[in-house]
Amino acid sequence: MIYSSENLFRKFLDKGKDDSKTYEELKQLYSILESIIESSYDAICVNDSNAMGVIANEAYTRMTGVRREELIGKSLPQLIDEGTISDSVTLKVLKEKRVKTIIQNIRGKELLVTGSPVYDENGKITHVVSNLRDISDLNKLKSELYESRVLTKKYLNEIKELKQKEGARLMMDGIIAQSKEIIKVLHLTKKVANVDSAVLLNGESGVGKEVFANMIHINSKRVNKPYVKVNCGAIPEQLLESELFGYEKGAFTGADIKGKPGYFEQAHGGTIFLDEIGEMPLELQVKLLRVLQEYEIMRVGGTKTVKVDVRIISATNRNLQELVEKGQFRKDLFYRLNIVPIEIPALRSRRADIPPLTYYFLNNMNEKYKMNIRIQPEVIRCFEEYHWPGNIREMENLIERLVVTSDGEEITVNHLPEDFFSKDSPTKEWSLKELVEELERKVIKETMKEYRTTRKAANKLGISQPALVKKMQKLKINEY
């Protein structure tokens, strides 16, 4: 530790120089005080009543970058004129004669500085002790929080705008589109809604085939007529025929004595949606083909046909053409159902929709559970990299789980389930460290592309220029 000719303590030591015992005690006390100040993690500096620097510990240099030789023996007005410091809490303490706290900028670093006066026995200020704390990390967190809130507001506003745009959102909650892939599908869906042609919705599980079927019915001329949904894979094979086509009284043991109309009769004048059509048994496919050809059905146990007027929409996550080649699906039925095929893209093929969908579901869950959970932008980036084998249904379920299990007010990467980063994931075989590095690489490239220089990019990212250059070398970022 450096002192100004050790004048600070010699004043006290001089009082006991004629008494060797007292002198040694004071000297020992001075040594202890020196160790205490030097071991402090916080930066400490001391100025005398003339605002001259007399003490600075090692933490001061570490925190500010100012060597103690630059501070000791110099007056604070001189340091301000030289640009070493932006302001002085000591001068304020000497003027107002009380403890003061200010934000001080020392060589580009923001510090929280508290100055405390030291009085003599006559009540005069002899020294001012200043404690400095680095608030750069706090400011960085505040900046990240602000950016997160701005980003959240941006996406929520985009969702609001999407609700008002033709082709971006077509009258249905749950279909949010920003990508050209899904907007193209939405245009086709709306177009075929106005005619009665059979529509076959193809797509992986969870892409929202039922939502598109709903849209077709709502935008059709049959909107005020019955809309019947049937999951062909959820009804036992032995019951499916009677459920679809109905049955007459006494048709089988346990049948209603009055008989029962089937789903096709119930949908008369409206629309029937046959989900998981690829699960329909071959023997029933023949009867369904008759409905498509003749628009009539015959109840189980019946002897006469019943005319029906229905619009048929079917959906499957299986490749029906392959099933036809394997003899598991009738070719003639396939052609009847496939008049207007609509391929609904998987979520990983429409990544531009991931951010607005995320905030849409987050907003819904917050309203549902009366919460106000936010989500960090880093989580959105993870979502954009994920494969989403369960598509939109998986995303909605995951966001609900994150909202109800969150132990704070913000969802972070650490809240994501372990299997989200599992090597069994269909994305890439990345560890969490590799995933974080890839996200860093992406963010740095985007920032460099926008700001062009490492100095400006480092300032935007809240790190020093050398740290950015070092990180770019580590991540092997040579072009952007």
TrEMBL record:
The Sigma-54 factor interaction domain covers 175-404
Please name the source species: Neobacillus rhizophilus
The keyword Cell wall biogenesis/degradation is assigned to this record: no
Occurrences of domain PAS (ranges): 29-76
Q: Which UniProt keywords apply?
A: Aromatic hydrocarbons catabolism, ATP-binding, Nucleotide-binding
- Entry's Gene Ontology BP terms: regulation of DNA-templated transcription
Give the protein name, as stated in the record. Answer: HTH-type transcriptional regulatory protein TyrR
Give TM segment ranges: none
